[in-house]
Each structure stands twice: as structure tokens, then as C-alpha cells.
């Protein structure tokens, strides 16, 4: 593999970066991910080959600023890679997306912390895989509340968290966990804690055996850490982290993964209809109309994701804009809309190819894609997001303008 060496802004020599642009590197990973996608799904196992390829292509650290050894990739660039991977293997793409969602929190909010800057250098240099621990037994998927707490003892702390889900927790090199700031803090007074794999113990409490997205290996664990430096706790309130980076990164990168899945399904339907047309020249195949409908909805889905990315890039670096009610509503709407569109598009594509899409092992099989994309409205539940939007709308003033929020 051709490589080149880049000099970081600090003057230190960064690790060699594989040849080609980000898209080319992601496409090489996608080729590997696609070869193993069916086995990952069938066996419900971690997409180890794809993640090894992501590390080899040095794509796990691209969001880290150049001054810290990364490539300073934008959210839009990362979203494009999510879509490329989504076409090949949903689980691999989702692992990549979730990693960069957590890395976005570090990049946006850890730059003033020497310890977290050092951690970002390690992410870029060592290609550390980051997982998230926000869900917790007793609160479910409400990431804005925690029961566990950081228990400080001088300059160190301990933490015990009953995490109902930690996606690929057993395979991660680093986990970013939410917790109350201290044992007397309110459940909503949270911080984000960085925990390296060799600093914690994980006791598995449940196994991820699901309809789709099986390769994310989102088992449940009791997470324990003890005697760790308090410097590993990001002092900025998690409420700000969630509003200014995590919310946007989650909805936009998840949406990009779902777009990749949906676009693959439409391509399979297109190939099927084109094959039918070649068999009977001069006749429009019966599935052509359904294909046109799916392609139309795919374009609308793409427009939603692209518009959301544009709004985020324009607001990036402005905490007031990122925390604005209208911005949060926009992101909520992107998630709700594209998650529903993704499911509908794959179902439409399946109706076009018919039994050949329903069967496994054919050139038009879509069973895995359909099962995977059915998770979209459930991550985070669309009903929960709509409830949040309803509360925000009670205090928002509409502009009534076409080209502004």
C-alpha cells in the first residue's frame, strides 16, 4: 500500500497516511467490509475485518485536529464515508459512525484540557476505537439523565455504571461514559468521563441478539473504574456537550449510514429493472414505477441529510447557534424524517425485486439491509424525539421564511 508522511502543525512527524483521498480509503475498507457483511450478520459478531481495515487506512483519527496528529476532517467529509460504508456493511458503518460521534465530543469540548488533547493524539496515532456508554439501567435510553456518579477521592475517582447497552464495548479501546458530577448531584447534572480499556472492568449482563444491526455487539455491562485521575473527567457540563456536538453528530452520521443502506437497495432495484427491460425490449417492466418512486424518495432523503450538514457546518464554532432551539428542532426533524424514509425506500426496493430480494444469496438479496434499517426509527426512539420537539415548540417563535430556520 502506498503511503506518505505528513508533518503535524506541532512540528512532529505524524504517522504515515495511506495513499488517496478519504473517499478512496473508505472504498477500500468498504470492499473488505462487504466480503464479511453476511457472516457478521449471520454470526452476530463484531466486524473485526472492517475495523482492522479502518485502522489500517487510518480513518479513526481523521476528525482530530491536524495540530494533534489528525487530519481535521469535517462532519460532512465523515458523513460521506459513513454512506460509503453503509452500502457495504451496515454494522461496520454504524461502528464507524458511533466512533466519530464520540470523537466529535472530544474534538469540540476537549481542546482546552491537556489530558484530553493528549488522548486525541493517541486516538490519531494509535487509531483507538471509541465506544459510548450513555444508557443505564433504570433510565433506559434517556441520555440526559444518569444514576451513577463520579466519586472523587482527592485527585482520583471511581465509577460504577450499570450500562444496559455499550455498543462494541468489549472491543473498544476507549469508552466515553456519562455520569452525575458527584453523588449528591441531580440526575441531569452530568459529566463525560474518558475511560481507557485497560483502566476498567466490564462484566457482561446481557447479550445483543437482535433482528438487525447484529454486528454492533451492543451487549450490556456493569462498568467499573477505580483510582483514575480526575483529569480524565471533562469538566464542561454534558448538557452543553450533547447540545453542541453529540446531537448533531448522532443524527447526521446515523442518517448518512441509513442513506448508504437505502442507496444500495435502490441500486439493486435499478439493476433488476434494467435486467428485466433487456429481456423484453420496448416494454416498460412492471417494477419501473416503483423504482421511480424509490429513487425520488432517496433524493429527498439525501436532501434532508445534506441540508442538515450544511446547517451544522455553518453553525460550527458558535455555541449560541448550536444550542439554539431552532437548531435542535431541525436536527430532530432530520433524524425522524430520514429514519422513516430509509425504511420505506428499502421496502419499496424489495417490492421491485420481489422474491429474489426476499431470498438470501441472490444478487438482489435485501433481507439484511431491511432488518438493519428497521433499527433507524428506534435509535433513539422517534417517539422520544417527537416528545422533545413538542416541548421545544412550546417556546419557539417561527420565522415563516423559506431559507432560514
From TrEMBL:
Q: Which cofactor does it need?
A: FAD
Question: Into which family does the record put it?
Answer: Belongs to the acyl-CoA dehydrogenase family.
Which source organism? Methylobacterium nonmethylotrophicum
Q: Where is the Acyl-CoA dehydrogenase/oxidase N-terminal domain?
A: 30-110
Q: Which molecular-function annotation in GO is an example for this chain? A: acyl-CoA dehydrogenase activity
Residues forming the Acyl-CoA dehydrogenase/oxidase C-terminal domain are 243-376
Protein name, please?
A: Acyl-CoA dehydrogenase
Q: Determine if Coiled coil is one of this entry's keywords.
A: no
Extract the signal peptide range. Answer: none
Q: Which UniProt keywords apply?
A: FAD, Flavoprotein
InterPro entries in UniProt: Acyl-CoA_Oxase/DH_mid-dom_sf, AcylCo_DH-like_C, AcylCo_DH/oxidase_C, AcylCoA_DH/ox_N, AcylCoA_DH/ox_N_sf, AcylCoA_DH/oxidase_NM_dom_sf
